[in-house]
Amino acid sequence: GILFVYQRNEVNMHNLMSERITTIQALVGSHAKNADHYRDLQTANFGTQMENISKTTKSDITLYSPDGKVFYSTTPEVFDKMVLGNRIDQKAYYNINRLNQRFYIHREMISDYEYWALYAPIFNNEREIVAIVSTPYTEGDYDFRREAFFHAALLIRRFLLLLIIALLFSTREINQMFSP
């Protein structure tokens, strides 16, 4: 029961993450379609559009150049304070640029904080990559551990209830068998 819930929730969480990154990819892509180069995206108007997308999707958005360097973030203090490096994760870069993945999802870690990182390429009208978008996804967004815990608690509660009913029934039956 619990393993089933865990596996189902893993699939649900992966579906939510892929939906989030493809939504962000489509929204950012709609504003980047006329760009010839990632530098064309470094305008105040594009920054305003990214802020709006960030608010709409409730996501921190980071944009990387096609060669993997950060050039825009809706949370620049993360990079200003050097919490994250200024380059894209190597595995993400390889999967997006070399394996031509539609999106890439994997776990990353900052000191002892683990989170899911979602990446997707942003294409222009010529189907060239002009940027790579990234957003974090924390398990707080979908807490499958909590749901598994509640499922386990429900199973234990049902078991205890059945055990109490069985004890009451068996006690009554035994008393009837040995009564004069």
Structural overview:
With 180 residues, this protein is an alpha+beta fold. It has helices at 2-32, 44-57, 76-80, 90-98, 144-177; strands at 62-64, 70-73, 104-110, 113-123, 129-137. It has a five-stranded antiparallel sheet with strand order 2-1-5-4-3, sandwiched between helices. Helix 1 (2-32) runs antiparallel to helix 2 (44-57) and helix 1 packs antiparallel against helix 5. The relative contact order is 0.16.
- The overall average pLDDT, rounded, is 81
Sketch the major β-sheet.
5 strands, antiparallel
**Order of helix and strand elements from N to C terminus:** HHEEHHEEEH
How many strands appear in the DSSP assignment? Answer: 5
Structural class, by secondary structure, is alpha+beta
Q: Tell me the number of helical segments per DSSP (H or I, 4 or more residues long).
A: 5
Weakly predicted, low-confidence segments: none
Q: Which value, in Å, is the CA radius of gyration?
A: 25 Å
Sheet with most strands: strand arrangement? 2-1-5-4-3
What proportion of the residues form beta strands (DSSP E)?
15-25%
Oligomer: single chain
Estimated helix fraction: 40-55%
Morphology call: rod-shaped
Report the end-to-end length measured between terminal Cα atoms.
45 Å
